[in-house]
Write a structure and sequence with these properties.
This protein is 43% helix and 21% strand. The protein is an alpha+beta fold. The chain has a five-stranded mixed barrel with strand order 1-2-3-5-4. Strand 4 and strand 5 form a beta hairpin. It is elongated.
C-alpha cells in the first residue's frame, strides 16, 4: 500500500479531501490540525503522507486513508493508535491541536488538557498517558511554527488583480503573481505597469 500521494484537489468537505491521481479519485480523511493547513483551492496540487486502514465487513473490505502534512505527523498518529482504546477515527478526531501541544500534555500527564480533545474522555486520557508518557519526547522537540499571513496586496494592485481574475487565473495564483512582482520591483505603484511586468515575467519563463 502506498505511503504518500500527490494529486489534484477536486473536492473537500468537513474533514475530507478528494484527490484525483491519474483519473482515480481518493477520498482522504484529514485530522483537524492537518485540514487547517490545507489552504488550496480545487484544481491545485496537494501532497500528503498516508496511513491506510483495511476495514473488513463480512467477506468484503475497503480501505480508509488518513492524510498528514509530513511523515512525523503520521508517526505521531501511529503512536496514538498504539493505545488499545484509541482507533483510527478516534485518533484522527483527537489530533485537533498541534502535535507538540498534545505530546507535551502526554508527557506532563495532563489529563485535563487531553480531555479537551474531541472524543477523549477521562478513561481514554488515562489510557493515553499510561501508554505513552515518556515515549513522545521526539514530538515535543518539534515546534510547529505558525504560518505567516501573506502580505496584503496594496490598493493600487486591486485593479490588476481584477484583470487577472477576468482572465480566469485562480485568485491564489493571481495574488502570488502580484506579490512576487512587487517584491522584485518594490517601488512600483501603478496597476498598468504592474500588469505589464507580470506579463513580461511570464513570457520570459515560457
Amino acid at each position: 500500500m502506498f505511503s504518500r500521494i500527490t494529486g489534484t484537489l477536486v473536492d473537500r468537505s468537513d474533514g475530507n479531501v478528494v484527490l484525483d491521481v491519474g483519473g482515480l479519485s481518493y477520498d482522504i480523511i484529514l485530522p483537524p490540525c492537518v485540514e487547517e493547513k490545507v489552504a488550496i483551492e480545487n484544481g491545485e496540487q496537494l501532497s500528503l503522507e498516508i496511513y491506510s486502514v483495511m476495514n473488513m465487513e463480512g467477506n468484503t473490505g475497503h480501505f480508509t486513508f488518513y492524510g498528514f502534512s509530513n511523515a512525523v505527523e503520521r508517526e505521531f498518529f501511529e503512536k496514538l493508535l498504539s493505545v488499545a482504546s484509541i482507533g483510527p477515527r478516534s485518533a484522527a478526531r483527537a489530533f485537533s491541536q498541534p502535535m507538540s501541544r498534545i505530546a507535551g500534555a502526554i508527557d506532563r500527564g495532563d489529563h485535563a488538557f487531553l480531555k479537551t480533545l474531541p472524543g477523549i474522555g477521562q478513561q481514554k486520557a488515562r489510557d493515553i498517558v499510561a501508554k505513552l508518557q515518556g515515549k513522545v519526547t521526539k514530538f515535543l522537540l518539534i515546534r510547529e511554527a505558525e504560518p505567516a499571513p501573506p502580505a496584503r496586496i496594496p490598493d493600487f494592485a486591486e485593479e490588476a488583480l481584477a484583470v487577472l481574475l477576468q482572465l480566469e487565473y485562480r485568485r491564489s495564483e493571481a495574488e502570488e503573481m502580484i506579490r512576487s512582482t512587487l517584491e522584485a520591483a518594490p517601488g512600483m505603484n501603478d496597476s498598468e505597469a504592474l500588469l505589464a511586468e507580470i506579463y513580461r515575467q511570464r513570457a520570459a519563463h515560457e
